[in-house]
Amino acid sequence: MTGLEKIINQIQEDARRDADAVIAQAKENADEILTQARADAQKLQEEILKKSEKDIANYRKRAQSSADLKKRTAILKAKQDTISHMLEKAYEKVCSEDTKTYFDRIERMIRAYAQPAAGVICFSQRDLDRMPKDFSDRIQAAAESVKGSLTLSEKGIRIDNGFVLSYGGIEENCTLRAVFDMKKDDLTDKVHEMLFM
After folding, report:
1. Which of 11, 52, 114, 160, by CA, is between 20 and 30 Å from 35?
2. What is the DSSP track for 15-76?
């Protein structure tokens, strides 16, 4: 072997050792990168799992709250429907009272709504036709109890029941429906107490 061949062999041997060292270092670096990547992936997977569990818990909580709200809303609506039904039944019962009971109620209403002034009281034609003979005297007595007077209009007006008071051109609707509507909040509270307390 000549000197040149020895030098070439030596260079090739050095190059192989250097290449082997570089390859070994590259493998070591690749293993470190792979190990780090696996650790990062594991950490990311754990974070995603924790976030998913938290999101699921929050979703369940919101779904439960929504279901509770719908349930409470349905119960409230059912209560309101029941109360409205009861009030309507009470109104219908009052409207269908016998003549004596009906006009006794009307007299009490006149005493409650009459003013200490001169006015006119108007009824439906139906009520005028079935009015007891002494009722105009009872109207006058009710008005006088508050230091007023009421003239009974002989012309029927278009109302279902109750009456309309007129003082100086200002009318007060005292039909049973108007009185029920005016006292609706109080009546609703009373029915609610009776049914749900």
Report:
1. 52
2. HHHHHHHHHHHHHHHHHHHHHHHHHHHHHHHHHHHHHHHHHHHHHHHHHHHHHHHHHHHHHH
Q: What tens digit of pLDDT does each residue of 52-84 get?
A: 888 888 888 888 888 888 888 888 888 888 878
Q: Cβ of 106: how many Cβ atoms within 10 Å? A: 24
Report yes or no: 150 and 120 within 8 Å, Cβ to Cβ: yes
**Number of H-type helices and E-type strands within the chain:** 6, 4
Residue found under tokens 């792979």 = 34
CA–CA distance, 126 with 136 (Å, rounded to integer): 16
Coil, helix or strand for 187? helix
